[in-house]
Records
---
Amino acid sequence: MRLIVNADDFGLTESVSRGIIKGMQEGIITDTTMLTNTRHFDRSIDLAKEAGIEAMGVHLNLTLLKPLLVSGKVKSIVDNKGSFYRKPSLIPSTFHKEEVRAELRAQIEKFLSSGLTLTHIDTHHGFSVVHAEMFQIIIELSKEYRVPMRKDDALTDDPSIKYQLAESGVKTTDVLYVDFSVPMLQESALLGMIAKYKQTNTTVEIPCHPGFVDDELRTISSLNDKREEDLQLLLRQEWFGYMKEQGVELIPFSQL
């Protein structure tokens, strides 16, 4: 099997970015995706470049902080304070597709302006599956920028969304391995996933949320102290030998 260990939320805070970089340099994190609408974007880009990281994905976002575009241009997806709704379920079903597309494209273009290479796209809080039309926008952006996307159809039972991705021709993994019963990555999940797919040609993505924690993170994210638990799990050096024994190849999205 081939395994992508993908760290979400690069750029959320400088401490989160530093933690992810440590996990990529010393642990089994193989890829990451960046939030582009935080005040830590520029510093996080600098940290990545200093660490020799030349490519990553974009963590498309409609549920945290404010949009990149002025709120008047994206009225259908922001609240009366001009901020994104905090949960995908709160995004109005009357959202305008062109507003969503314009904002998400702006996020990708901001990332590309950094000089880093775009490897893939995924979505913060899995907002892509709130509606089939929303999912179609993500597919279209994957095609436009010629990059893979996360297999978000695993987050829903909607058959129309599953059909969309299957018929799109967009590159993705065979499996998105998530456990909704726990908020963070567990050792048992990693071991179970390897046991299930080690004798196959399956390509699996397992998302994670590692990072160092500071006071700012605690004010903006419900996932805070547990991020350091994620990081410590992914830094265990014994994973390298174990995965080699099990025939697991660690890869980034660029190798799909």
Note: The chain has one domain: 2-255.
---
Amino acid sequence: MRTWSAPEVPSLPVNGPQVSLHNTATGQLQKTSPTGAARLYVCGITPYDATHIGHAATYVAFDLLNRAWRNAGHDVTYVQNVTDVDDPLLERANKVKVDWVELAERETQLFREDMEALRVLPPAQYVGAVESIPLVIELIQRLQETGAVYQVETDLYFSVSADAAFGSVSNLERDVMLSIFAERGGDPERAGKKDPLDCVLWRGEREGEPSWDSPFGPGRPGWHIECAAIALEHLGTSFDVQAGGSDLVFPHHEMCAGEVQVAHPGSTFAQLYAHAGMVAFDGQKMSKSLGNLVFVSALRLSEVDPMAIRLTLLRQHYRSDWEWTDDQLWASVDTLDTWRLALARPAGAPSAPLVAEVLAALADDLDAPRAVAAIEKWVADSNAGDTSEPEAGAVVAKLLDAALGLSI
């Protein structure tokens, strides 16, 4: 699948510190230690509607990680999927009477445009669920060899009990798992399952639904096995960071880890799990079911500066749950105007301490609010008359782009 165009990113005169992230699995801050290229997997969209601010917050957050690694001197291998066949997509296509392939292609293209506008660095591998079906089949066959797969009618299930480490990503009690599983695409009450938490690997063909041939009969992949197979193919086992929204901790990331770890005994899926908080609007988490969505494309079409959107996201720590308001966006528009004045001055406050502070903040669990605060202080000092460094604005402009993805 085609990814989006990469923005030109300036290089900085110094390297940043090694990056530490909060590991969901341990609850602790953990230093990342890439061997060779840093390997990052961020779960992508199910393209049945436009990109909303909650999505954008997640992808901007882990774009900061991509940039922080690069600024620390690492190459980065970034992989992202597109779940371009799944129940929500098929249901939406049926509801609006549009071919599901057409809907998926249209919304995926809109996502690309949104990511380009927000200057999110593109993945090296952007892989759709449909094109990953051969990888899924291969992984299911490996799981069958371990005895971790069983059949219920025409569907294949993964036995979570086969993974001795099951539960170590989310650290949830079983009753909580069962509740969340039912809310997030699981079927804990289905008759014939060995364990209510067992998840679908291969969904047998249903009338009116797309299907593909396989050694297990016609059908299509389950949700979790898709990401597991793509990550395994392009990043291997024990890659550096598995990332996404906090609503993916369970069951999605737990199941992905279990499937790979059972298929490859003795391995770990990822060294670290990082998750972005949820964004609310009008008092509730943004969701398609509630309809309380703020779409990136709608803001762009109303001529809002995409950098103001990005700055609004950067003012929140990526792990925080927070609420979007229009007032925050308009404040960011004003802030950028103020910053542009400071950057345009022939001289400004010293830039070296600012570069060090911003890079240190982002290496410390992607602390973008701390980085933004440091920039605001530099701007205030420069606008107040500190002109001790000629052409400081040019250095700071490069810093804004390279570290925070803000091209102003």
Note: The CA atoms of residues 163 and 262 lie 6 Å apart.
---
Amino acid sequence: MGRKGKQRPRRVRKAKERSNRAVWSVIPAGHRPARHIIRWLRSIQELAEFQLARKDLKANIWRFANAVAQCPGFDPASMTVMPLWQRLQERFGFPSKSISNYFRRLRDWGVLAVVATGRTAEFTPKSSGRTDNEAAIYVLLEKVEEEGVEKSSVPVPNRAVNNPPHARAGEESKLNIDAATPHASLKRAAQRREINHQLLNRKAPLWNPNETTSAKTKRERREAERLASLELQFRSFPLQRISTPHVAAICRPFFRAGWTIRDILHAIDWRPNTDARYHHDGANGVENTGAWLKFRLGKWVRKDGGFYRSPSQKQAAENAQRKAEQRAADERRTRDRAERAAYTPPALGWRERFALLQEAKGA
């Protein structure tokens, strides 16, 4: 009988740790070994997870990826690398905990795969005759391009070219910029992919548009503001051009002032305290969507720094006033009923009292 419980996978033999069979057995679907180490580094920059990471984490992972690419033990035939933790600690100054964290992130992002795990000398089989520690083997991965896309074999010029002299009679030689349209920044493209992915998978409102984002802890409040901003992007198409953290940063003061998603959507289209609606909705002709959103919401900030009451706050105040007036009227009616119920009529009628009064005057 075998041992009970979950066992760690057995390490690939030293002689076959870089073979095609060992390498391809760990490559996930939709990936392949990187064609070049430079292409591998560029593929990391194109990842949405990398572009949307914090600025400090992004810089550290990029430095770590370059350190892994410079480690000895790189095999260009199998695109495998054998990074030594001791070298990463001594030469590049990475703590052991950070090295483990960065390796885990690169594996989760699909740019690294473990071919052979590391092993210390005490766990090395005695029959092998080796008494040294064995480092882990990783394969550098890149995503497989989609097939069926028609590609032109003509190279696209990437710089300005001059017409040859006397190419056309009677025309001067002019500078023609024959280059492809520059792509948007990688970060903006990653933000758009992330937003589209979340919005396409939306099956229910990410946040109730009539509720505020108040929460007990800071983490819960931040998560509520993120979900509310994402739902705001779903309901307002122009806001999908910028990232969800950008929308949350602009709307955060309004969220914490008790505004709801419907209030912000109203403030984007309407001027405060008037029935005037903006003629432009921001779908076309707006280059800086963040500045446009900040300008529209800024109209709802008073000169003293306070906020005008949002539509939901106005409605809540009107409802509270109406309930207070109704409660006061009910109290008056109850008091009048109590006074009428406590009134005791006299024993004699008014005629008897008048007769007695006349008799008293005649006497």
Note: Strands lie at 31-33, 80-81, 112-116, 137-143, 161-162, 175-176.
---
Amino acid sequence: MPKFCLISELMERGCISQCTDKIELLNSVKNKTLSIYCGFDITADSLHIGHILPLICLKRFQIVGHKPIVLLGQATSLIGDPSFKLEERILNTEESILIWKEKISKQISLFLDFNCDKNNAKIVNNKDWFNNMNILTFLRKVGKHFSVNQMMNKESVKRRIVSENQGISFTEFSYSLLQAYDFSELNRKYSVTVQIGGSDQWGNIVSGVLLTRKLFNRKVFGLTLPLLTQSNGIKFGKTETGTLWLDPEKTTPYKFYQFWINRSDIDSINFLKYFTFLSVNEIHSRWKVNMENNDDYWSAKVILAEHMTRLIHGNQGLLAAKRISSCLFSGSIENMLLTDFEQLKQDGIPYVELSGHEDLVQSLINSTLATSRTQAYNMINSNAVYVNNKMINNTKYYFKNDDKIFGKYSLLRRGKKNYYLLCW
């Protein structure tokens, strides 16, 4: 029976935003073996980095003996959670959701153990209980326990109601009741007593706590994790150029690695607490030594980037990301593989498709590294242009077959950091 106080550690790591009845929850987690769940709606064919923290949190519970349950909301995915969304979600088809569910299930296996003895992780589907429930049963069984006044006072709902351009449909308004019933049904079927989720789920989670008490007279708990946001306030699942996905076909290991390596030192320390199993004391002590010695051997952002990339993409994905990074920033590209260039083309650096007998000046214009032939001439004459990291100062230079790595790629660079991939 678990004795380690995980709630205290989560608090020390800054991983708890809110929880219901903190003292009783702390004692329950410490002295009992619990079933704990987190729900994910299937809104795309991949999870993104905003989903990592709750999955890591479930893993922490599993390590100390609790049973993690992941709810994939095939039913609720047909509705869409309105929590703090500015506009109505696009309704996806059942066929798409079913395909996406299989892909996401495989990604979840990166985090949780489904083959341990006593506390195997389990994936469940809320369509199992909603599929055979008609609207009258739902209204009588669930709807009667909720006040419309209270539902309208939820911050996420109020924002949509007062919006001049976008209200909220009854479909999305009812979402909170569906999630609440998920919690009560998981309590009935699997003895789940704790739900975790992002802080934007607090209202939905509390609704589930209350409904379970009203239906079964049982006490359950809710715990929310901080939403990870960037300096511009955008949720951590998004970046300036779009969502950072866990699927390598949507976000390459190289781009994934670069995202983490470019975090600030302070953010990297916080993320090490969130995402790794290094102790808080070890993180702070090693960081202190690093700062005192001005030594990059243990750089927080390097440790973070390596840990996160290995977790999602394995050792091969990490090696590829590090190889590409090293080759680009050291100026030596001899060790790059064909697959490395394919990653760069997918989302690593800008690229342009070229055909025929291209000259260097025109390629600078086509790649937008230069806005005119005059500017391109000036760049070349000032020794600022490189092809495959070799400086070219000939304004009449034409690309040769030797410039085409693997017969199809050339790296065009202006200055130290402005890369463009030429694809032949």
Note: The chain has a mean pLDDT of 89.
